[in-house]
Design brief:
alpha/beta, Rossmann fold, 7-stranded mixed beta sheet, binds S-adenosylmethionine, transferase, SAM_O-MeTrfase
Amino acid sequence: MNLEKEMNEFAKANHVPVMMDEGVELLIAKVKEYNCKSFLELGTAIARTAIRVASLDPEMRVVTIERNPEMIEQAKINIKQSGYQNQITLIEGDALEVELPDQKFDCIFIDAAKAQYTRFFKKYSPLLNSNGIIVTDNMYFHGLVEHPENTNNKNTKDLVRKIRNYHEFLSSLDEFETTLYSKGDGVAVTRRK
Ligand SMILES: C[S@@+](CC[C@H](N)C(=O)[O-])C[C@H]1O[C@@H](n2cnc3c(N)ncnc32)[C@H](O)[C@@H]1O
């Protein structure tokens, strides 16, 4: 079985929250459009996106950060099996706690804990190259950002409020402009003005 198929089946069987296919395709299209050669991902999960991005170009360098030991274990297996281990660096730890990588990136992909998006952006945006992009997934959060009345769960309501705050935070930034794409679960692409 090929690795992509294996990873998809593993994700399904183990309820691993991987990016929706439409979102992945948009992300890949943007990485190509902006000619990105360095990619930082917050939230590796099983390294499905990290491997896909690394496979785009032998020059591509991917750094990806994950805090969950079970995900880390599976990500390592998949990265090794993919053959892209020379292009992918997996940092183990909480993205809000680990030391900043000592390099800049053409693309920063924010896909870790949704409640922390604003903190991730503040911590990692200084690492963005001048023509680079920051991509954030789950901007719609299953339609609940537009229709928060569709849930009564307090934790979900809290999360939705934090994602809405992140929308407002992005709009309030003077040096950045953001375009929101209705692909997958809603994908934001932010770049310097
Ligand atoms: C939606 S999944 C990532 C999917 C992956 N980016 C992909 O495209 O296949 C979110 C991952 O972020 C990890 N995560 C959440 N908060 C984190 C944090 N503060 N630091 C590092 N990893 C985090 C979770 O353990 C989970 O594996």
